[in-house]
Recover the amino acids of this structure.
């Protein structure tokens, strides 16, 4: 006679099926990333453009049928401007490749000369001084590959923009959404608004600082500071250290300017990230820092840097859906840092 399945066995089977579904879903997302990345990126851009269109409708009294095309055209111009800025900066870097190569050679020779006696002898025995003979063609080749990567990104941006057009114009009549999608739209738009403002101010301040210090590619580093600020915790640190290689290989930059080029942007990132941003965002996404960190790792493994940029809003959307079902609600509470929900205890107020 068949034995009845216990509640514990049912839970074990459910958990096992969920784990298998997550693994299968992750594999599908990784396999479909050429299409899914542009689509998901376009979805969040469309939410941001819809928010700007709402501002035009509410503040400037622009008809919604006109506000949406205006925001779409503005987005196209912004993307074209970013592409032109990146292309011009890469051209500047390519023009100075010979100077940077000579300076890099001097830096390697000085580093070997500064080594203590035994280490310097080992370096000479291993012929590490040959590293100083890095040809300029290697730097040029690196720049060529970088330009190719940027061109690939810009080609993807065309697909992103096509998705954006259909998403924005397709929802032209849906000025206000209700239910689950309405909550998702409200939370994500609130997050995007705060993040765009904070990241924009950060990028402008970093770019102007480096421009005043006469650091090459100053505006590109400001742009990267804006983009990387969307990656919680680690993005600001990466953006602060990005100018370091250029600062080191530029012969016209003094030691004081090199220190300032790292210290001032670092201070800007610290103030904006730890003081201004928490005041603006509050607890709008209701996600625990550990959940955000795990989402960064997960989406970074699946979709690379773009996945890390989108990890936080994607996780917030997933949490909203989990809250809608009784069986998955404890997991949503865990993502918010209320672990007591898993044991049936009272969540903290």
């Amino acid at each position: 006679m068949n034995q009845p399945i216990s509640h514990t066995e049912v839970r074990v089977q459910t958990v096992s099926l969920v784990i298998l579904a997550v693994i299968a879903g992750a594999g599908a997302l990784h396999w479909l990333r050429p299409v899914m990345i542009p689509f998901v990126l376009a979805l969040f851009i469309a939410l941001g453009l819809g928010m700007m269109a709402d501002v035009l409708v509410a503040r400037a009294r622009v008809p919604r049928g006109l506000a949406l095309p205006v925001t779409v055209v503005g987005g196209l111009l912004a993307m074209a401007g970013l592409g032109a800025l990146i292309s011009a900066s890469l051209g500047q870097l390519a023009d100075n490749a010979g100077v940077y190569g000579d300076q890099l050679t001097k830096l390697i020779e000085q580093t070997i000369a500064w080594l203590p006696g035994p280490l310097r002898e080992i370096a000479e025995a291993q012929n590490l001084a040959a590293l100083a003979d890095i040809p300029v063609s290697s730097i040029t080749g690196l720049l060529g590959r970088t330009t190719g990567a940027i061109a690939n990104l810009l080609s993807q941006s065309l697909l992103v923009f096509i998705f954006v057009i259909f998403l924005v114009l397709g929802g032209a009549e849906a000025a206000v959404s209700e239910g689950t999608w309405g909550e998702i739209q409200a939370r994500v738009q609130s997050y995007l608004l705060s993040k765009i403002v904070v990241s924009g101010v950060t990028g402008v301040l970093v770019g102007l600082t480096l421009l005043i210090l006469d650091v090459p590619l100053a505006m590109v580093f400001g742009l990267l500071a804006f983009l990387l600020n969307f990656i919680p915790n680690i993005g600001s640190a990466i953006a602060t250290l990005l100018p370091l290689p250029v600062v080191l290989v530029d012969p016209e930059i003094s030691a004081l300017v090199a220190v300032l080029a790292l210290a001032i942007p670092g201070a800007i990132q610290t103030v904006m990230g730890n003081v201004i941003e928490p005041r603006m965002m509050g607890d709008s996404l209701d996600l625990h820092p550990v959940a955000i960190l795990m989402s960064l790792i997960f989406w970074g493994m699946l979709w690379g840097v773009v996945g890390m940029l989108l990890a936080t809003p994607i996780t917030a959307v997933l949490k909203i859906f989990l809250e809608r079902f009784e069986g998955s609600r404890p997991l949503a509470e865990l993502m918010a840092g209320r672990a007591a929900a898993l044991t049936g205890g009272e969540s903290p107020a």
User: Anything to note?
Assistant: Residues 285-349 form one domain. The chain has three domains: 33-170, 182-282, 285-349.
